[in-house]
Design goal:
Blueprint lengths: L1 H14 L18 E5 L2 E3 L16 H5 L3 E5 L3 E2 L17 E2 L2 H9 L1 E5 L9 H14 L3 E3 L1 E2 L2 H5 L2 E5 L2 E10 L14 E2 L7 H17 L2 E8 L7 H12 L3 E6 L6 E4 L2 E4 L4 E4 L14 E10 L2 E12 L8 H4 L3 E3 L2 H16 L6 E3 L2 E5 L9
Parallel strand pairs: 1-3, 2-16, 3-6, 4-5, 6-7, 10-12, 12-13, 13-15
Antiparallel strand pairs: 1-17, 8-11, 9-10, 14-15, 17-18, 18-19, 18-21, 20-21
Length: 372
Amino acid sequence: MREKRAAVLLAAVLLGACGAPADELPRSADSPSVTLAVVGQALIKHDPRQYLEAPLATVAPLLATADAVFTNLEVAVAGPGCDCRPTRDDVFFHGAGPEVLDYLGELGVSLLSLANNHSWDYGDAGIVSTLEEAAKRGFTHAGTGRTLTEALAPAYRDVAGLQVGMVAMATVNQPPEAAATESAPGVNMLDPDDPAARDRNLAAIREAAANADFVIAYQHYQVDAGEGWQESWARATVDAGADLYVSHGEPRLSGMEAYQDGLILYGLGNFIFHSRTEIGNYPPETWQSVVVKLVIGPNGVRDAAFTPIVLDEGSEGEFFLERRGYPEVANGGIAESILTRFAELSAAYGTELEIRDGRALWTSSEGRITSR
């Protein structure tokens, strides 16, 4: 991987990738391994502590043992004083107050993608407000910006001595005005038919790889770009220097692939899902996912454990919407079915998982450490 970093750095120089030189950011060639938790999308519109006595009682401890937690923030945040006006008026409008960020922070979330199909639900003002509220709370975030340059730029965070870089993009159905430009706030959009968008996102990943020990490429993907397109793109991000590709968008769990020196998570579905749809609107799989615990280092992902979770679809009554959509660790037959399905989806990519003690486990071919 260190040889890969050198090659990526050379490529970035030759291609004229923009950004801070590598020697201007902390480097950690001899960093210890750290634990990164990755979860499904957080479509969180309410602080559960206002409605539930002990929310996420079995999931929160999983996240508490990680050095960092990554998710996608699937709402636009209206901060104090924001002239935030909804851009849609149906059940799929997803705006929230800053208290949802406070709760995610309490869970240990520190890495946020802001690029998705709801980023623009409060329009330009909501893009800026979400950026400001995330920054106030110390989140490292990527994928939206006041300009396209800002939305495209890698974000960096020191995680227990490991420099982690992140690039986030969205391939989604949104009006053209939701896309960031050099004169308007918006989302870093990746149109499958736009070679320039592809090139600039790969350049941003190369830049991140030149400046960081470990790189996350995030894509919110929900556009039918043709069979095999997402797989081709995910592998291209790894070829460009990403150690981990993560995707949400389709609200259900997909498989994983160990490709070259990187790990690809094709879809983690939901982590918190405050959908305003009726019970039964989505199939049961929508309310099932995994919490991913990765042991990472300068040589990439060394080890992965997948713990199955079930989200509460809710029951009619007071505060129905506020109490639904929160995860707890799955047990028994449903846990086995989630893990078996995940293993089968991953096997389609040639990835072998071992199901043991209520988790699915994967270890890199280098095998330096075991799953924990």
